[in-house]
């Protein structure tokens, strides 16, 4: 039960972080490089089950209009298998990997 609640809370936090990420990509006055914001809500297909790349993979839940994800052609329902040639095991791992990119 605790693991399920933790997974659900993590998914909700990731969902909120990815939705708010485009705000962080707005141009700043100091012109320093900013981390990438893709504008996607990502989570497992079934929120009631543990995320698993084979049986409950990280999936695009929502695409933020006007965001980089929309420009890249992502659509709700897309399953995230690989990013930069590396396997995507979880929505958290996907968010972490995207955050390492420079906008």
User: How are the strands of the largest sheet arranged?
Assistant: 1-2
Computed structural class: alpha+beta
Overall mean pLDDT: 77
For the record, give the distance between the C-alpha atoms at the N and C termini, rounded to a whole number.
38 Å
Q: Which stretches of 5+ consecutive residues score pLDDT under 50?
A: none
Count of the separate structural domains: 1
| CATH topology heading | Pdz3 Domain
- Name of the CATH first level: Mainly Beta
Radius of gyration: 14 Å
Total DSSP helices: 3
The proportion of residues forming helix, as a percent range, comes to 25-40%
What can be said about the biggest beta sheet?
2 strands, antiparallel
Overall morphology = globular
**CATH architecture annotation:** Roll
Q: Could you tell me the strand content as a percent range?
A: 5-15%
Strands, count: 4
* Order of secondary-structure elements: HEEHEEH
Structure, described:
The chain is an alpha+beta fold and 103 residues long. It has one domain (2-99): Pdz3 Domain (Roll). It contains three helices and four strands; from the N terminus they run αββαββα. It has helices at 2-24, 68-71, 91-99; strands at residues 40-44, 58-63, 82-83, 86-87. The strands form two sheets. It has a two-stranded antiparallel sheet. A two-stranded antiparallel ribbon has the order 3-4. The chain starts with a helix and ends with a helix.
